[in-house]
Design a protein that fits this description.
Layout (H helix, E strand, L loop, with lengths): L1 H22 L19 H69 L5 H7 L3 H81 L27 E2 L17 E4 L5 E3 L4 E7 L6 E7 L4 E10 L6 E2 L4 E5 L10 E6 L7 E2 L1 H6 L7
Antiparallel strand pairs: 1-2, 2-9, 3-8, 4-5, 4-7, 5-6, 6-8, 6-9, 9-10
Helix pairs in contact: 2-4
């Protein structure tokens, strides 16, 4: 009886153990640095990575619009300077007209041009003198009237031109201020999302377990070459063979200084042979190419491919970060003869030989 009860207790325990084993990963790794990697990324990771990419695109568009507005402002500034020159000329013309009116008034006073016509008739000695006086009087009145009208038109035109110039400039300054605020707001959101992405990556590296690939909408690739640079926009920093306290030996790759979350591209067609977390390189990817060379992409904040997956030249395989032994956001890029550390060659001439110049 006692043995029968023991069997009844053992059966549920065995079933529970089998259930636990069933949900464990099929393999903890392949012995090549893939320790504890999940088969797919979490929804939160995918959303955050996609948000960073979207904000990058939004920031790029906002920057383009801001730069276009700034260039338009330069054009408007040059136009405003030309208008100001014209306005200065109009002001000088008005000043000259005022001087002309003053001279005419003085001449009238000295010559009696302002004498009433009746007085001129009475004082005239003969008809010829009377006609000459009438002619002078008419000419003087016409000159004065024309001068006054010309002055009035000039002052009216000046006021309108000044008003239009001021309105155009104020409108442009307002638009540029709006674009600057929009650009700043997007950049602030992008910076926050970058460090959230980096925080998740640091947690994964600390645990030695990478999240699975986050899937991003890939842009259309239209490359004329079979090889591309690993990032689109960058500044070159530490070069191959550099020495320093950061490395136990000489630097084994080429660093590309880029912000966190920058899309990282496969430099050529190949297959993913390693995706790993932990160690000096932090989150890293290694590809094998058809010519037998391997390329490594290290210090990432996210990966967008799985081990064993085939990739095309220019395809996004991850996002840059600053995981592992890193002093700031950058991509560490290596070219290797084997998949392992210690077989690196200088990546700059390697890429140059394949038509990819790094500037």
């Amino acid at each position: 009886m006692r043995s029968h009860r023991r069997r009844l207790v053992l059966v549920p325990a065995l079933l529970c153990a089998l259930a636990v084993l069933a949900v464990l990963p099929a393999a903890a790794g392949d012995g090549k640095g893939t320790a504890g990697r999940n088969s797919s990324g979490t929804g939160g990771d995918s959303v955050l990575s996609a948000q960073v990419v979207r904000l990058y695109a939004d920031a790029a568009k906002a920057t383009q619009r801001y730069e276009a507005g700034r260039q338009k402002a330069e054009v408007q500034r040059a136009k405003a300077q030309r208008i100001e020159s014209l306005l200065d000329r109009e002001r000088r013309e008005i000043s000259a007209l005022h001087e002309d009116l003053g001279r005419i008034a003085s001449a009238q006073y000295r010559s009696g041009g302002g004498m009433p016509l009746t007085a001129q008739i009475i004082l005239a000695k003969n008809p010829d003198e009377l006609m000459r006086g009438q002619h002078v009087f008419s000419q003087t009145n016409m000159v004065v009237s024309n001068a006054i009208e010309k002055n009035r038109r000039a002052e009216s035109r000046l006021a309108k031109d000044e008003s239009r110039a001021a309105a155009a400039w104020q409108k442009l300054e307002k638009r540029n201020a709006e674009l600057a605020d929009l650009k700043k707001g997007i950049e602030q959101k992008l910076e926050e999302a970058r460090w959230q992405l980096q925080g998740k990556a640091d947690a994964s590296v600390a645990a030695g377990s990478c999240s699975g690939a986050v899937r991003l909408d890939q842009p259309k690739r239209d490359f004329r070459s079979e090889w591309v640079a690993p990032v689109e926009t960058y500044e070159l920093s530490a070069a191959f063979g550099n020495g320093g306290v950061r490395w136990a030996h000489l630097h084994t790759g080429q660093d590309f200084a880029v912000p966190i979350g920058t899309p990282v591209r496969a430099v050529g067609d190949g297959r993913v042979v390693r995706v790993s977390c932990g160690g000096a390189f932090g989150m890293e990817i290694v590809l094998r190419h058809a010519d037998g060379y391997f390329t490594q992409y290290a210090h990432l904040a996210a990966v967008t491919v799985d081990q064993g997956e085939r990739v095309d030249a220019g395809q996004w395989i991850g996002q840059s970060g600053t995981t592992g032994n890193s002093t700031g956001p950058h991509l560490h890029f290596e070219v290797r003869v084997t998949a392992e550390l210690g077989s690196a060659v200088d990546p700059v001439p390697w890429l140059t030989a394949r038509g990819v110049g790094l500037g």
